[in-house]
Amino acid sequence: MGEGTLGWASTGGEVGINNSIGGLQAQRTAILELGHIVDFFYMTPDMREAIIKLWHPDIPDDHEWFGSTRYWDRNGEAYSTLFLWAFADEELWIDAGYSHKPSKELAAQLRAILLPNIAMR
Predict the structure, then answer these.
(1) N or C: fewer beta carbons within 10 Å in the chain?
(2) What's the CA gap between 87 and 68, in Å, rounded?
(3) How many angstroms from the chain centroid is the CA of residue 64?
């Protein structure tokens, strides 16, 4: 793992957490990386499009989730931060500084996109 790297997830289904971190930082990192695994193996193109519309509701958007954009420093990381907000206790929340900011409202909308049957109840 590179210096300064807290964790990683691979499209092969592997997740790693830097063994030099602990406590809240380790918990946050694990949930962020789980968000990537959910993205790689569960999410559909329609789900990804709906998430991009959360960030850009009124304007056309040229973001591609995978492909020509830099997933690891744009869409993927901003989504994973929002995933943390959607599925963790508030104590674990962080704002990683991406231009796509997380919020309680967006987190609730993300849960509805990822878990539509549960959100309907």
Answers:
(1) C
(2) 29
(3) 15
Task: Give the list of residues 6+ apart from residue 97 with CB closer than 8 angstroms, or none.
Answer: none
Q: Which residue matches tokens 């309907």?
A: 120
Average pLDDT over residues 41-63: 83
| Token pair recorded at residue 42 | 């569960």
pTM of structure:
0.85
For 55-110, what is each residue's pLDDT tens digit?
888 776 666 777 666 777 678 888 999 999 999 999 889 888 777 889 999 999 99
Q: Cα–Cα distance between 29 and 25 in angstroms, integer?
A: 6
Beta strand 7-9 pairing with 15-17: antiparallel
Residue 4 DSSP symbol: T
For the beta carbon of residue 49, count every other beta carbon within 10 angstroms: 13
